[in-house]
Amino acid sequence: MRSITKIIVDRLDEEGIITDYILASNIIDSTLAKYHIDTTANFPVISTDLPEYIQTYLKTRQFDGLSKSTLRVYFYMLQELTYFMNKPINNITINDLRDFLHYKSHNNSLISICSIISCIKSFWEWLDLEGLLEDNPAKFLHYPKYTKNVREGLGVVDIEVCRESCNSNRERAVFEFLLASGCRIGEAKDLLYSDVITGEFQVIGKGSKIRYCYLNKKCQMYLNRYHDNRKGNSPFLFTQLRYPYEQVSTRALQDEITSIGKRCHIHLYPHRLRHTFASAALENGASLTSVQKILGHSKISTTQVYAKLSQASIKNEYLRYFNI
């Protein structure tokens, strides 16, 4: 059945639902044709009601404003949980959940395990609120302790080295935009050129939340230079490099940023430019609250993780205010 499941999961639509039931039937028939099924064997039939609850839960979270990518991650996590347990929801115990987490721990970091626990807790809390549980075993799950790595941005020298490694107006425009705005790569992909031309624009971020972002003069100059020399008439801020020059994909923008880093031997990726924006803003005197608003974080603790003050800045603050 795992081979059948894998084939069907590969055919899921963007919402994690298979809509072509004839296709699903054909996949099952063609796969089972390779096996001999003994109809006289008396195996116990185990059924689970998890799939229908999962579908309803995901639709509810979609109404809450979760992005398609987040819903897809939740779907795959909960589907794997279903395959692992295959029992009714009210028969699942805390030990079942712990066994699943132990199974997942073999190939996942502690940070990933924390994400899985968060997904499980959220799902079981929803089941409990809907009155579908006799008891909530997930409330006894605890997050493992792990050392949080400081997410470092680029230094001033590295920023200039990356700038010199840009091979085109397009690469320089993408680099400057992500550095100056603090936007996520998916947010940049969906923007129109007319949205950002004034240097102040709105972004629809995670959870469909709208926030304001800004651009400095240097970034605006490179965006205008790129826009004036590119091909096609697409309204999007960044477009394909080849015909028909429509909206660029997230992967294409990621590859461009990675290529810039490879040329100068710097580990560069789009989100590191977001870290750099946050770190530079804080080190230059921006308040934590302002940076939180621009980045679109609902919790200020998230901003603190993304943008840690450098030791040099802390030392300077000490010498300035505690020099007695």
Number of helices: 16
The CATH superfamily of the largest domain is known as Intergrase catalytic core
Q: SS-based structural class?
A: mainly alpha
What is the class of the largest domain in the CATH system? Mainly Alpha
Total strand count, please?
2
Q: What is the number of independent domains?
A: 3
* N-to-C order of helices and strands: HHHHHHHHHHEEHHHHHH
- Poorly predicted sequence stretches spanning 5 or more consecutive residues: 13-19
Mean pLDDT: 84
- Fraction in helix: 55-70%
Assess the beta-strand content as a share of residues: under 5%
What's the short story on this structure?
The chain is mostly helical and 324 residues long. The chain is built from 16 helices and two strands. It starts with a helix and ends with a helix.
Write a structural description.
The protein has 324 residues and is mainly alpha-helical. The protein contains 16 helices and two strands. The chain has helices at residues 2-10, 21-32, 50-63, 68-85, 94-104, 110-129, 156-165, 169-181, 185-189, 193-196, 217-229, 250-263, 270-283, 288-295, 300-306, 311-321, and strands spanning 200-204, 210-214. The chain has a two-stranded antiparallel sheet. The longest helix is centred in the middle third of the chain and has 20 residues, at 110-129. Mean pLDDT is 84; it is low at 13-19.
